[in-house]
Amino acid sequence: MSTGSAVAEPTRTSVAGPLGEARAQLAEAAAILGYDAAETAVLAAPRREVTVSIPLRRDDGTTEVLTGHRVQHNLSRGPAKGGLRYSPDVDLDEVRALAMWMTWKCALLDVPYGGAKGGVVIDPRQYSTAELERVTRRYTSEIMPMIGPTRDIPAPDIGTDEQTMAWMMDTYSVASGHTVLGVVTGKPISLGGSLGRASATSRGVVYTALAALRHLAIDPASATAAVQGFGKVGRGTARFLDEAGVRVTAVSDQYGAVWCGDGLDLPALEDHVDRTGSVTGWSGAEPVENDVLLALDVDLLVPAAVEGVIHRGNAAAVRARVVVEGANGPTTTEADRLLEERGVLVVPDILANAGGVVVSYFEWVQANQAYWWSEAEVEARLADRMAGAWQDVLAASRQHDCSLRTAATCLAVRRVAEAHRQRGLYP
Ligand code: NAD
Description:
The protein has 14 helices and twelve strands. By secondary structure, it is an alpha/beta fold. Nicotinamide-adenine-dinucleotide binds at residues 156-159, 201, 228-234, 252-254, 290, 304-306, 326-328, 353, 356.
């Protein structure tokens, strides 16, 4: 790798929000690994970024122009991989941060991908299904030159789902003249999706949560938990924790939280959410404020919603002994430090929520080979990968006497840097 003069911008940690957090984490790992400023700048800089306009014909005949992004952070270990987010809060810096975290996550779990992320600035709840289909197809068509099974493979994230992936796959396939199953993951099972993909992120979160509890000698059967977010990740996490014997006393979504000290009746709550679209208004538990959920007296707290929810202002109120990051970037750097000082064990996102990308990798392998595995095979291989990564991170944190996040980031950054060095700098 070049040791010439460093590019200042990609390493600037004074940027606010998730990008500043991501850069600060990289800077800390690079310092521990002894990398100089130029090496760190190469690792920090996104390889490619594109911002596109998405003109949308609304159902009422009017036209509106939306904005979308796709960022490929690193391509040294393989094609880029990362979710597509539909949210009014999407901005380019957030997408850059999420793409960087994907690079480290793929390296940590040793799946042969670099990191990417995409986003469209849209509140999907305000648009009809037909409008969302037109947005997805136009966005896919605008970023078409960047994506493909050997280039960049999107997947669902906040506000997108398997239907979104089916539309992306179809749009890409129509333009290619043949069906290309490997262009996205998180597809419906009937269209080349993998058994076990929909639940994979939550299963991975629960594997690491149970491992972390046992590591602290807390018996899961007598442990309590609170889960923030009741979407694709949070809902499955609550259900699998419950199935593992953990008493889930509170869950939340963007509209509010519910609490029951004896443990929530999760099947009944899921019925309510299917009928109403929210955990709020359910008669089986007490309503509580969203912030209260983060401060509950539980053994395990799983933030599984959005970035930056545990911050300087509320970290002192967190009473859980273990925080397992289902979401990407839920804990700010300052909060991380405050939690560490108080002895709270934080299992970082790039480890805890990596189950999704692991089974996305399995889905891509199956799609490329047109040969499908059973659900039991997928789950056994996922469990193996998660257990291996947990052990690697735990060993590295003991060896370097550092937090699990720093240990995980160091392991991942070193793998990416090795790939850079082995490939050499072109030209
Ligand atoms: P989703 O859109 O399915 O669900 C998000 C949930 O969070 C919803 O219940 C929403 O109401 C809730 N929410 C939003 N803001 C909230 C707030 N302030 N307080 C409480 N709840 C709030 O999204 P998802 O796919 O479950 O993703 C959640 C997080 O997990 C994101 O950070 C995402 O990047 C990360 N993640 C997702 C996957 C995956 O496979 N889907 C994989 C790895 C990481």
